[in-house]
Amino acid sequence: TLLESKDLKTFNHALYNHDWYQSQQSQEDHHLNLIVGLGPSHPKLMVINFQPYPEDIQIRQPFAGAAGELLRNMLKAIGVEKNLSYLSYLDHSSNPKRRLPREVKMLKDHLQKEIELVQPKAILLMGPELAEILLHESNLGDLVEKKMEFMGIPTFGTYPLHYMTHDPGWKKPAWTTLQLLKSNL
Question: How many helices (H) and strands (E) does the chain have?
Fold first, then answer.
């Protein structure tokens, strides 16, 4: 099963075949609407978004399109290569419906297993939902200026990339987070 996976290849295979993910989409196309994590194990950084963006689904890669380009530039500014980071999601499907608490718990358990397999040196959370679910931090404004820990790993939170692509004013607090992240890497 997914939580018993010994490596990322097995984990991703189990994710594709997980009953819950299959139930989120029509049977014939559920694989097309599911994006698994991508990147090396033991990276400096693991970047986690709540769900894939539409461009991610279209291009079939995590953090693709305008959001991915922005992330690449943000990470480059602090000396981290996007392609040397591990990119993933709490919910790997593109289904936008609201998640029930038991589903969120299941997704969190899956993410914890993925983090255990990836073994990043630091984690960057993209968005308030993740800060609430993983860190029990409801005020992302406070989180952008401090380092937290998740599973014993230095963890930082900032605003979602789509906020920043639609309103550049969100980049300033994100830069504060990136500077804090840089000083901890």
Answer: 9, 5
